[in-house]
Amino acid sequence: MRFGVGRRPEGFVMKGLSEGVTAATQIVREAPRRPLRVRFIRNPRAGRGLRGFTRLLKRHLSPDAVDYEVAWTRGRGDAETLAREAAAQGYDVVVAIGGDGTVNEVGRGLLGAEATSLAIIPTGSGNGFARHLRIPLSVPGALRRLNRPTYRHIDVGRINGHPFFCTAGLGFDAHVSKCFAESTRRGLVTYVRLALQEYGAYRPRPVRLTIDGAVSDAQCYVLAFANAAQYGNNAMIAPLADISDGLLDLCLIEEMPVRRALRVAAGLAFGDLPKSRAAIYHKSQEITVTTPEPLGFHVDGDYMGEAQRFDVTVTPLAISVCV
Description:
By secondary structure, the protein is α+β, with helices and mostly antiparallel strands. The protein folds into two domains: 15-149, Rossmann fold (3-Layer(aba) Sandwich); 162-317, Sandwich (Tumour Suppressor Smad4). The chain has nine helices and 15 strands. The strands form two sheets. Strands 6, 7, 8, 9, 10, 11, 12, 13, 14 and 15 form a ten-stranded antiparallel β-sheet that branches. Helix 3 links the parallel strand 4 and strand 5 (117-122). Helix 2 runs parallel beside helix 3 (100-110). The chain is globular, with a radius of gyration of 20 Å. The two termini are 30 Å apart.
């Protein structure tokens, strides 16, 4: 089934050619000498910096490098289907235009596609994955990267079978993600307002952790599983995370009284949360969490629902990314 390939929400195709591709450092597969076949997948709701997008494509993509097509999503899941379809049709690169949620959908569609790489035009609220990879946050800057792409393979995490590329988690951050999804307003200001609004009423929950075979009981205010270093907006939940080391960084914050909350906020902002002693860290390939009562969880900032058992794993170097 096709979901608006090359179309605005009713249907519109934009194609063009774009600057020669050369081999680059950190390349994980040889860049083709012919123009790259690229499909852009655009979330119509992610509009930051996308005014006049057709003109931006023509202005910043060099005409010898990229043969491109734009596909528009219409609803949840469309981006994954469009990405999988592009990989099956032999596209070299599929570009997610949007935030971490859109990147997650597109990335899911490319898992197992060895010949197709993921690229990002970051236009979301937090853009944690793009920030970790040091992809330009401006649309023109990110587009120009496609003229001379460099590739690398990165790890992919899973929680209860759901892939994540940046972070997943339980507890307060998942609760705020749920509130954010229900809000009609987007952006950092809305997220911070909701976090402050919910902080006073939220209470830690008991959990049982199994990490590399060792079992321990703890309280969970926040339990984050980090493939990349940050949530987004440079909020560094796991500043030592390496996206290609075959491990996830677990961050556990058991309680959040006011003084600790201030230390956590400062640690997130300055990237030194591990030094604050406000959080407990582990690195692991496989983690199991059980809870006596259902607990909400998120995947790359999108609220997924509740469960009482969470199986968290990582697949090393599972997807190729343009950086």
